[in-house]
Amino acid sequence: MDLICLRSFREVAACGSITKAAERLGYAQSSVTAQLQKLEELYGTELLERRGRRMELTAAGEKLLGYAKEMLRLHAESLEAVGAALEVSLTIGSIETLASYFLPPHLQAFRQRQPNVSLSLLPGNEPELIRGVKSGTLDAALILDPPLREPELDVHLLRPEPLLLVCAPDHRLAGRTEAAAAELDGEPLVLTEDGCTYRAALLRRLQEIGAEARISCELGSIEAIKRCVAQGLGVALLPSIAVRQEVEEGKLCAAAFTEPLAAEFHIQLVHLPKRRSSPAFVQFLASVGADVPLGRTEGAEPPRRA
Fold first, then answer.
1. Radius of gyration (C-alpha) of the chain in whole angstroms
2. CB atoms inside a 10 Å sphere around CB 216
3. Is the separation of the CB atoms in 284 and 89 below 8 Å?
4. Most CB atoms within 10 A, among 1, 50, 68, 91?
5. Taking the CA of residue 220 as centre, how many other CA atoms within 13 Å lie in the half-sphere pointing to its CB?
6. Whether the Cβ atoms of residue 18 and residue 36 lie closer than 8 Å to each other
């Protein structure tokens, strides 16, 4: 049965006028008349009759009105129930550093605004994340790198993130406010796993100045790296956000890395331009503070990769 016809029937019964019902529904008067005629043909009886200046229900119309109201109520209820159960999903990729130390408060803010959105957070290194965004398996990715320019992507620079040289409190560099790459010649290094952009930048800089890169150990966990550094296994180059608490508590010492590369790194969110059509995704952008994207530069060369 056509619910539009039942809705028109209900409004005419309430208004006592086809003209007034048409105005309330936003239909042409002829459309409401045709809908009433369709109902009467379906039931094979007259449902409304004119009594003076009003349209009044017949006995059959009285019976139908109760059913019409219930069917329309159930229809509205079903729309609300299905809409509440329908969860939009977002899949966000992130390097481990940002997933652990940057994202949690922003995810909480997003969850408060969008409680019905199913959010998945997938870890990875930057090359993997960029491929995931381009292929559509990730809705967006958070990376830490010099400003990225990719022809296919929107890039949001969220904030600069300085890199610090971190060591144990009893290390020879402890208490220093600054340190240069030349001071790491032959120094045991505790590195992140291959594919990390700031690891690659450090090793590249050591090679450029002819310094020996002595790798003590390589670990995929920032927490594990910090523990190894605290135990004196070597020094590490890490984002400020990852070591703030340990430095404040005196468990680690940190010096600003004076190489130009250390000032170039930014926390960035990248996504395909078409993702902006999703209201949930727009809300996610707002939650992490992503405003106007850096943009897509036609013909720009992608940055060097590890």
1. 32
2. 16
3. no
4. 68
5. 4
6. yes
The C-alpha atoms of residue 267 and residue 294 are separated, in whole angstroms, by 12
Element (H, E) at 108: helix 103-113
Distance CA 228, CA 223 (A): 9
Residue-wise pLDDT tens digits, 199-254? 988 999 999 999 999 999 999 899 999 999 999 999 999 999 999 999 999 999 99
How distant is the alpha carbon of residue 2 from its chain centre?
Answer: 40
Residue appearing with tokens 């159960």: 85
Residues 6+ apart with CB under 8 A from 10: 65, 68, 69, 72
d(CA 47, CA 181): 90
CA distance 79 to 113: 21
- State the Cα–Cα distance between residues 81 and 100, nearest whole angstrom: 36
- Is the CA virtual torsion 161, 162, 165, 166 positive or negative? negative
Q: Which residues of the chain carry a pLDDT beneath 70?
A: 1, 80-87, 276-277, 291-306
Q: Strands, E, within the chain: which ranges?
A: 48-51, 54-57, 89-94, 118-123, 140-145, 154-160, 163-167, 178-179, 188-192, 214-219, 236-239, 253-257, 266-271
Please choose, from the candidates 270, 292, 273, 265, the residue with its C-alpha nearest in 3D space to the C-alpha of residue 130: 270
Tell me which residue of 112, 99, 97, 89 sits closest to 287, measured CA to CA. Answer: 112
pLDDT in tens, 40-49: 999 999 999 9
Token pair of 73 as six digits? 């109520």
Q: pTM of the full predicted structure?
A: 0.65
Percent helix, strand, coil in the chain, to 5, is: 45, 20, 30
